[in-house]
Design brief:
single chain, alpha+beta, elongated
Length: about 230
């Protein structure tokens, strides 16, 4: 195979001294494409590459490397990055755990290395071999603007079952017991009203009971929708 490649390059009239550097560049490009999964698209590859470089730099600056350093070359824990889909809004970072890195990885904060992404939670994998960091794009926190109730109902029913409710663009939960807390003016009542609207607009029928001792917004909502009100 190699003589054929060299012969082909000679046909292209490349000088003899440029053949081997050209082959090296091709091999490096091929290796980069494979490591960063170029078949999933160039945006995926570039995003993965820059996140990986930033994480490695942060870990190096935090002195995570092996104490045995030789001519500036250090050994860092193995890192893997995966995105949930092509939208590149959510994904996971896996960092190999070991006795040497365990305690430091438990306290590691990666947000500064992720630029436009935010770490939502971190935990140990089931096999206890990887620290997993789930991240989300900061753009996902942009608030949806729904000017009418009909638009809200359409948004709330996108790709969910009748026994689930939508909390936001990403979060869908089954209808179970739910506690809502927050300070005055934080939006608890509006949130509960949105849940009530979702339940009432389901294709399958649900019984909705409202208890509002203050007889405020929830009481008026239940009254206008002819619901059973408990005092």
């Amino acid at each position: 195979m190699y003589p054929l490649i060299v012969s082909y390059l000679k046909i292209l009239y490349l000088p003899e001294l440029l053949i081997f550097p050209f082959l090296m560049v091709c091999m490096l490009c091929f290796n980069w494409c494979v490591r960063n999964k170029i078949w999933r698209g160039l945006p995926y590859s570039l995003t993965t590459y820059f996140i990986m470089m930033n994480i490695r730099k942060q870990i190096k600056d935090a002195r995570f490397e092996n104490e045995k350093e030789f001519n500036g070359i250090v050994r860092l824990p193995k890192i893997k990055i995966t995105f949930d889909n092509r939208s590149l809004k959510t994904g996971k970072i896996f960092i190999r755990s070991s006795i040497q890195y365990d305690q430091r990885l438990e306290k590691l904060r990666l947000d500064s290395a992720l630029q436009n992404f935010i770490v939502e939670r971190q935990y140990l994998s089931d096999d206890r071999n990887w620290y997993v960091y789930e991240f989300i794009s900061g753009k996902s926190f942009i608030q949806e603007t729904l000017n009418t109730q009909s638009k809200f109902i359409v948004w709330a029913h996108q790709n969910i079952a009748d026994h689930h409710i939508r909390l936001d663009t990403r979060t869908v939960l089954p209808i179970h017991m739910l506690a809502v807390s927050g300070q005055t003016g934080s939006g608890k009542t509006m949130f509960l009203l949105s849940l009530c609207n979702q339940v009432l607009s389901k294709n399958s029928s649900h019984e909705l009971f409202v208890i509002d001792s203050k007889r405020a917004d929830l009481y008026q909502f239940a009254k206008s929708n002819i619901l059973l009100i408990l005092f």
